[in-house]
Specification:
The complex is a heterotrimer of chains A (about 290), B (about 270) and C (about 950).
Chain A (H helix, E strand, L loop, with lengths): L4 H22 L6 H23 L19 H24 L6 H23 L11 H17 L3 H29 L3 H5 L6 E6 L7 H6 L5 H24 L4 H24 L5 H4 L4
Helix pairs in contact in A: 1-2, 1-4, 1-5, 1-10, 2-3, 3-4, 4-5, 5-6, 5-10, 6-9, 9-10
Chain B lengths: L32 E6 L8 H12 L7 E2 L7 E2 L3 E9 L6 E8 L7 H5 L5 E3 L6 E3 L9 H5 L5 E3 L6 E3 L4 H4 L12 H5 L5 E5 L6 H9 L15 E3 L24 H14 L6
Parallel strand pairs in B: 1-11
Antiparallel strand pairs in B: 1-10, 2-3, 4-5, 6-7, 8-9
Chain C lengths: L16 E6 L8 E7 L2 E7 L12 H4 L1 H5 L9 E3 L8 E3 L2 H18 L4 E5 L5 H11 L4 E2 L2 H4 L1 H11 L7 E3 L6 E5 L7 H13 L3 E5 L6 H4 L2 E3 L6 H14 L5 H7 L5 E2 L15 E3 L6 E3 L12 E4 L2 E5 H9 L6 H8 L3 H17 L2 E3 L3 E2 L5 E2 L2 E3 L2 E5 L1 H4 L4 H14 L9 E3 L64 H10 L7 E5 L11 H9 L11 E6 L11 E4 L8 E3 L11 E7 L12 H12 L16 H7 L29 H7 L3 E5 L12 H9 L16 H10 L9 H10 L11 H4 L7 E6 L15 H4 L5 E3 L1 H6 L7 E5 L4 E8 L7 E5 L16 H4 L37 E7 L22 E2 L6
The complex binds ligand MGD (2 copies), iron/sulfur cluster (5 copies) and molybdenum atom.
The site of one iron/sulfur cluster (SF4) has 13 residues of chain C, from helix 1 and helix 7.
Amino acid sequence: MHPAPSVIVFSTLSGLGFGLLFWLGIDPTPPTGLTAFVFFAIAYALSVGGLISSTFHLGHPERAWRALSQWRSSWLSREGVSAVLALLFMGLYAISLIFLEMNATALGLIGAALALFTVFTTSMIYAQLDTVPRWKTPLTPALYLSFSLAGGALLSGRVNMAILLLVIAAICQFIWWQRGDAALSDSGTDLGTATGLGERGTVRSMAHPHTAPNYLVKEFIYVIGRKHAQKLRRIAFGLTFVLPIICLLLPFSHVLAILAVLSHVAGVATSRWLFFAEAEHVVGLYYGMR
Amino acid sequence: MPQNSHLRNTVAIPTQYRREKMTDLPTKTDRTLGLVIDLDTCVGCHACVISCKGWNTENYGAPLSDQRPYGTEPMGTFLNRVHSYEVQPEQGNAQTVHFPKSCLHCENAPCVTVCPTGASYKRVEDGIVLVNEDHCIGCGLCAWACPYGARELDQAEGVMKKCTLCVDRIYNENLPEEDQIPSCVRTCPAGARHFGDLSDPNSDVSQLVESRGGFDLMPEMGTLPINKYLPPRLKDSWDDQSLLAPLLEPVAEEPQGFLGWLDKALDKLPGGTA
Amino acid sequence: MTFQQPDLNISPKVSDEIRQTTCYMCACRCGINVHMKDGKVAYIEGNRDHPVNKGVLCAKGSAGIMQVNAPSRLKKPLKRVGPRGSGEYEEISWEEAMSTAVGWLTELHETAPHKLAFFTGRDQSQSFTSFWAQHFGTPNYAAHGGFCSVNMAAAGIYTMGGAFWEFGQPDWDHTKLFMIFGVAEDHDSNPIKAGIGKIKARGAKVIGVNPVRSGYNAVADEWVGITPGTDGLFILSLVHELMKAGKIDLHYLAQYTNAAVLVDAETGLLMRDEDGKQLVIDRTTGKPTPFDQKGVRPDLSATYRQAGVTHRTVMHLMAEKYLDPQYAPENVAEKTGIAAQKIKTIAAELARVAFDEAFELEQEWTDFRGETHKTMTGRPVSFHAMRGISAHSNGFQTCRALHVLQILLGTVEVPGGFRFKPPYPKPVEAHPTPHGYGRPGKPLAGPHLGFPRGPEDLQINEDGSACRIDKAFTWENPMSVHGLMHMVISNAHAQDPYPIDTLFMYMANMSWNSSMNTSGVIKMLTDRNDDGGYRIPRIIYSDAYSSEMVAYADLILPDTTYLERHDCISLLDRPICEADGAADAIRWPVVEPDRDVRGFQSVLIELGARIGLPHFLNEDGTPKWKDYADYIVNHERRPGVGPLAGFRGEDGDQFGRGTVNPEQLDKYIENGGFAIEHVPDAARYMKPWNQDYQDWAVKIGLFDAPQPYLFQLYVEPMRKFQRAAEGHGDIQPPDHMRDRLKEVMDPLPIWYAPLEDSSVDPDEFDVHALTQRPMAMYHSWGTQNAWLRQLHGENPLYLPTKLWEKHGFSEGDWARVTSVHGEITVPVAHQAALNENTVWTWNAIGKRKGAWALSEDAPEANKGFLLNHLIHELLPPKGDGLRWANSDPITGQAAWFDLRVKIAKAEAQSESQPALDPIKSPVPQGPDHLEWKVDK
Ligand SMILES: Nc1nc2c(c(=O)[nH]1)N[C@H]1C(S)=C(S)[C@@H](COP(=O)(O)OP(=O)(O)OC[C@H]3O[C@@H](n4cnc5c(=O)[nH]c(N)nc54)[C@H](O)[C@@H]3O)O[C@H]1N2
Ligand SMILES: Nc1nc2c(c(=O)[nH]1)N[C@H]1C(S)=C(S)[C@@H](COP(=O)(O)OP(=O)(O)OC[C@H]3O[C@@H](n4cnc5c(=O)[nH]c(N)nc54)[C@H](O)[C@@H]3O)O[C@H]1N2
Ligand code: SF4
Ligand code: SF4
Ligand code: SF4
Ligand code: SF4
Ligand code: SF4
Ligand SMILES: [Mo]
């Protein structure tokens, strides 16, 4: 899949943002006043910024509100609805904490659940797609949720929790990659089933329908060298998990904390880039790719 | 035989395939209109591709735009494209198969259920899957959900385009009745494209699917495509020594012998001298 | 929250009006319905009533809308201001353009008409352009057939009075086995596809003979991946098998062919009576009898002794020749690359279907001998072939061999077999002979192009030099019935046989894809004499678009597009007939040009009048015709016979013959742009010998008297040339040509290796290189079409598995391809279903930077390439001091497909090589996006 920057930015930032909101929402002793303002500002900047970024790839952003209508069937719609609700509840919760210095626990818990659900819906947008075997697995929600929770914990300064969740996320990521590499071939879908000619022999694409590129090729067929991908995986893994954990294990300092966060964000972005770039859409089979 | 060669004449979607929260796909359509494409006859001429482009540029929704039409990487929106494949059997010559592909108007269309706006929908009256361009936000998710590459996001208009099964032709009273068929079917010089109601077991298309072993693309996706493909017929049987036709018996090896035979044979012709 | 389906208008208005005319996105000439909205072209679809396409349309046809709006369209006449080839032009007025041309041409007409060389490309007004040239008085006229497929046309006409090409068709309704040789697309594009679709729907079988398995060969049930240039051998091996097994149609051969005609044992000429009629031995009387007598039973096995000499029939000679073991499947298998067993199987199947599945059509008919038959015997085997067999230097004889094969099976003009389309069948005798002696100020005595009957019809001077600039009808290519357009520029440049003054061309991209040796031709067009003047002093060219050739002319006459002009697709030329009907068609301006351009034919009419060509003026000196439309309606070739056959006579109800009808064009428009007259039922088959057909043909003016004839298995005119080479007669070839003529002018089909094989080392150049036409692209002009160029904007060189693996290629690699003549470096791709010693690419995709209103970084101008750089119009020197033409030695057909190359892996390139310098474009580049909708 084409790793569109807007989608990578969206899923990286909003995952962190909603993760942070989650932790803020369930915090029995949440920050209040200015501290609360700073935390919520960060969380909103990340989640809303991510959402706005995601509209950049829309053909008609002005009609984005229509996306809230099909929540009964569409994960994307659910994501929209859930995000709006999460932001709404958390907004009220935040207002009460910042301005009223009041902990509306119920609002926080509902908001936290919605925030987490939003992350889940995002993951389901991908995990539901039969067309991308690498994504079509319960591990994808696990991956998104663990990333979001770990990132949120990290951002909210929950050191032990962050270490624990980073380890869990790392395991998810590792298994997800392992599974992903075999996903297409394990799916049983190949050019043979795609053309229905597989029983007659080995099918090979001889010529594309157009010598010119098209939307499908640009959107769905992104070829990245295996070596290159492996290198990026190592970088992503180091930045997302290893470096932050080391920082967290060292005696606390603000510099280390900021380093841990920045490293983690950069790592998640890299991992998300790979999430798309390595994903093989079955349409690629028709074009003889992979 | 292709696995999916049986004819499905019920329009209801088998429950094992029914998508979990599939509230936006009709559970039943009155008819299932679609195409049957004959891979034994398609010569790969691209006539259907351009005819489709022409009709749909001028008709339903926004025109199918072209970017850099006179430059490098010209890239336009097309609703139908023709691939070329080679099939290498275990023994014998490779075979070339030209392979047209457009929306298959799936009964269990994932592109519809993923659509957040309801712009993608499947018509209850005939099963045609369409995009309401006025509601489409151009998020592209439906194209992601389609296994067949049948949807293209128009780069100029920012909305999703797909085969409409020429919904604005097949019922169009401004067209003579014989022309109330999809543009690509009307134009196909080889007659490799057929249009009709696949829910009616007696329709020509259903009959063709039945008699020629029509099959589904990627049946494992559970999309239940309406469009069917007819497989290429058996090829190169004369290379198969075991199926050889009886060879010719010589009447003569030599010119002299041949002339002798000729004399005798001529006598047997009507009007011969015998 | 139930989902509401939007309200759709499923019955929108389609258009304001439909205008019916004829497509010209290629030469197939389908009928089109042009849907108009707001006076603009909105959508093009096929015309269901049209005889050619019956409603279907190919990709190019539907893309016509993008041709009519193409930014490459020329806008105004152009005068060259920079050096030739730079592309620097100034727009001028039509008056200036016309007076310039009139100035140059009038002088030539009056003093030295042969110094004008007027050659036209694939236009469809040859009966008019040749008429113009004939009245100008220059011998130097031809269209493009010489480099196209003259072998196919000439072999067909000499053998059976008609050819494949678009001049005949299989009996799609009855055929059960269809064998197609060397066709990628052909002129009859849509009819062939429709026919294949039709027979496939019936489950009939298709055999494809082609080194490449794509297109028609992809759908063929049996693929014969033959080695290029060896079809003749394969076909003669089938003939061998069939004759050996006695599986030939003896009745048909005896009655309708010259198989039973006696050959004079001394001269090798056919024996004739005093009236010149071919003689057969009648089985009933045992006496020599003219072939066409009532009740005659020609004896195939007869011998005739006269004055101590035994004369034998053609059949005897054929038996002797083709039963020879050299044609046995085992002996041709290696050369042809086809297993002996497969050849035998094919022969057996042809015989089985032709004879065991023969059927009788209940249709009474009377033959030319006056005998009535209750039924017509059907033999459901049919053949078709095109440039794959004809564009070789052995192509004429190969095409002949194929015709002989179908005739032996008795499948020509019978139900289920191959059928002619009117005005064919037509024996050689009904065609003119060539005319080539020009006199200042006078018309030629007859048409330029014709069918030589023997050495007396050659166009050579007393001293043996050629009359024509292209050296057509000389000993080098005695039967070059279409001329040799591919030799014009090189001969004019070499001033051999003489210098010319003005090269006037129309619709041929000679500095690019239609020339062999493209870079060489570019040099010739720009080469100068010592005095600084161009070696070819003046070039006038008419094109509608900014093609590569535009840059090389001094004066450009911009043409209209096909939807903007009158045209006439005439029975005098290349009509749109089908086997069951005579038909012709028009084009008419369905839209007015939005530029200052004029239909070329109208321009020629004005030029003719202004130069003062007698036939173009009335007695009072006023122009005879206002424009081409006027000519189409009012010109009469013979009394009552004009360019259009339909709606003649006062009431417009006559077909073929009739007085001029001033309303004729309106009638055509009303009728959908065409007219058709159906062949009567009893005349539908057996046409060459069918009285009803002959009478009908006379009635509609195809001929003036019935002219039944025999198929010529043995072609006597060839024997005449052969005899001359043996030293007989007054007109003698130069000595160095004798051996070759003796060999190739064999009156019975033979096979010899393509000539290139004997002048290059086949071990070094061990790979055959071919081109194919893409179905969705027409030569060079498809590229300006925004829709079509997305389909074919680049062309890889396809390599078979053997070469792919041998050189270790992988996707994205490049190869250096070398012939004796040149070298190209190009991208490669793999194709398994390909003859293992053959590579190929799509024809004419590569473009010159700056042409066609494309950007300079367009893929066509960077990755796209031409194979033409590897092909030369002459063969490499053989050390005999001569440069032999790279053409068929009989017809002069350019031998495009003889090409041999060697291949090596190359570094990946940023552009295909050779990369020529850009030329300046006379038109601006096209827009960077299109949303083409009339009301948008
Ligand atoms: N390598 C290789 N080369 C080949 C062949 C091959 O098989 N292989 N095939 C050969 C054969 S058979 C042929 S016929 C030639 C074809 O070669 P060409 O005859 O050169 O064909 P086109 O490229 O179509 O060029 C015709 C010119 O006509 C112009 N034109 C188009 N429409 C109009 C019009 O309406 N009016 C006017 N005035 N001009 C117009 C186009 O712009 C173009 O410049 O190529 C030959 N070259
Ligand atoms: N779409 C489209 N249609 C066209 C044209 C076009 O440019 N585009 N051009 C028109 C013109 S001008 C012409 S002349 C016709 C030509 O029509 P075709 O004759 O169909 O033209 P080519 O593409 O040259 O096809 C030659 C075929 O012969 C095969 N071949 C080559 N060598 C051999 C051989 O030795 N033996 C056998 N058996 N096969 C061989 C090649 O693989 C190829 O498939 O098409 C006309 N129609
Ligand atoms: S028009 Fe018909 S023959 Fe041509 S590519 Fe399309 S389906 Fe195949
Ligand atoms: S082919 Fe693709 S776009 Fe068409 S209905 Fe099926 S899933 Fe949807
Ligand atoms: S692109 Fe349009 S039709 Fe497709 S899912 Fe998005 S809104 Fe729906
Ligand atoms: S049915 Fe209509 S929209 Fe669909 S591919 Fe055919 S022409 Fe295009
Ligand atoms: S074959 Fe195609 S391009 Fe040629 S005349 Fe017919 S529709 Fe036009
Ligand atoms: Mo041609």
